[in-house]
Amino acid sequence: MTNSSTNDERRPAGELEAAVMAALWAAEGPLTPGQVQADLAGDLARTTVTTILTRLYEKGVVGRDRQGRGFAYFPVQDAPGLTARRMHTELDRDDDRESVLARFVDQLAPDDEQLLRQLLEGDNP
Question: What's this model's pTM, rounded to 2 decimal places?
C-alpha cells in the first residue's frame, strides 16, 4: 500500500468531500477526477477522488457529463445551497420537526435569530 492510500484512509470522509467540493466550486467548468486530483496537489489517489465524486453524484450533490471513457463533474449547488440541503436532511431524520426547529431557534445567536426573523418575514437583509 502506498503512503498516499494510507493518508486517504485516515482522513474523514466529510473532509475529503469538502476538499473535492472546494475544487469543483473553484473551477470554471466540469472537472475530471484527474483534474480534481491535480487541484488537490496530488494529495489523494485518483481512485479515491473517483470514489468521492461517485458518492457525491449518488447523493445528488454533483452532476456529471460524459467525457471520453469517463466523466467530468460539476457542483449542482453553491456552498450555501449545499449547507441548506444538509440542514433539511438532518431535519427530515426526526419525526418531531416542531421540537427540532424549536431547539434550533432556541440555540441561535441573537444576530442569527434576527436574521432568520427578517428572512421569514420576507425582509431580505
Answer: 0.70
